[in-house]
Amino acid sequence: MMRKLIKPLVVLLVLGALAGGGAAAYGPAARYWRERNRPRWRLADVARGELVAVVNSTGTVKPTLQITVGSFVSGPIVEIHGEYNQEVKKDELLARVDPRIYDAALRQQTANLKTRQAEVVRAKAQLQQAINDEKRAFKLRDEDPAFIAQAELDKITFAKQALEAQLVLAEASVEQADASVANAQAQVDYTEIKSPVDGIIINRKIDRGQTLAAQFQTPELFVIAPEMKERMHIHASVDEADIGLIRNAKLENLPVKFTIDAYPDDLFEGQIEEIRLSSTTTQNVVTYPVIVSAPNRELKLLPGMTASLSFQVDRRSEAIKIPNAALRFYPDVRYVHPDDRSVLEGRSGAKARDDSTADDSSEGKAGDSKRDGTTRGEADESAAADLDGNTPDRQLSAAERTAARKRRSRRHVWVVEGDWLRAIPVETGLSDSRYSELVSGDVRPGARLVTGITANRP
């Protein structure tokens, strides 16, 4: 009997021990699974420091002036003195066209001039003879009117006047012949192709022996760029949405920094020289040409290079800087404290961005179109939605759109508080590719803001 009682008792004791062990292990196991499934937030620090807002663009390096040297006369090229990359001075000989036919024309016109000059001498001699004859006739007439009839006297007088007119014609013929000589001399001079300015030959379009035909179109022989060692121009295209910022930057004389692929480690600096009004429309995108002037004493900037420019449009020396990734972050509502869930109301599709492979380096790529930490379209749509819930931007009036864009700077950032995320309203100002200036809001330097969520490891 005793043996029958002991066996169930042992079973009960074993079951009790197992139950006690399970109860003791439940607490640590539950804590382990809870900790394992807790979201891992990516955080970024709020900093204080300099903040520079820029507008990015690309441009082409060009000389400040390109002078195309052509030929006014036709003929074969017999000499070439100008070469690629050669520095030349004003009036330096670059090439020579065969001058033989022009020399012959000059000699012909010179001989013609001498002939006209001889005719002037002869006309003067004949005129002087006529003057003398007239004087003698009047003298004889005074001594005795019967010596010379009035008709003969008239012939002598009118003959002198005719010779006076002939002298005028001869002198005019001399001037005409002299002009022809000057024209022929100019043709001879044009056979010598000379540099009109000091500069560098950046292109040579002819070879020795090539025949020029200048009757129909002026042949282009050389392209000379003056002042290449002093400065160069970068021709950039700036979107119409940014041209107002560029104009303010020009008025404040803010610098423009740029890089070129040929010297990736060098940072170049220039100034906005001109904003041209000749807009260009490409696929409904309106851009304006902006000319940037940059020194080129080392001759590193060469014509045709592509420059990546950053126009400085504003600057803060001591700004509280909020990471743009924190401004772009919208959490899943299940992680948000119940008191702050109203912040997410009306935002369709608001959820945590589980891009565990992303890092802060991706923010630097947003500089071209995300100066305020989000795209202009996202910000406008977000601000428009704040007006009446879900009104698309295209349905707003001009006044409403203006008000909506002013509200783009009102955002929320998120901090971790225990097991929840809490929202902090902020207003931002100046932005660069990574940070935005804090204008107002309960955020201090050193605070850690949520920028994303990292997937839990299996």
Structural overview:
The strands form 4 sheets. The protein has a 6-stranded antiparallel β-barrel. A 4-stranded antiparallel β-sheet has the order 3-10-8-5, with no helix packed on it. It has a 4-stranded antiparallel β-sheet with strand order 7-6-4-9. With 458 residues, it is of the alpha+beta class. The model is unreliable at 348-389 (pLDDT under 50). The chain has 3 domains: 39-49 and 320-454, no CATH class; 56-64 and 226-318, Beta Barrel (Elongation Factor Tu (Ef-tu), domain 3), CATH 2.40.30; 101-189. Helices cover 34% and strands 32% of the residues.
**Arithmetic mean pLDDT:** 83
Radius of gyration over C-alpha positions, nearest whole angstrom = 46 Å
Overall outline: elongated
Low-confidence segments, given as residue ranges, are: 348-389
Helix content: 25-40%
Question: Total domains, how many?
Answer: 3
How is the largest sheet built, in terms of strand order?
2-11-15-13-12-16
Give the strand content: 25-35%
Helix and strand succession?
HEEEEEEHHEEEEEHEEEEEHHHEEEE
- End-to-end separation in angstroms reads 55 Å
Number of strands: 20
State the oligomer.
Answer: single chain
Structural class, by secondary structure, is alpha+beta
Q: What profile does the largest beta sheet have?
A: 6 strands, antiparallel, barrel
Number of helices: 7
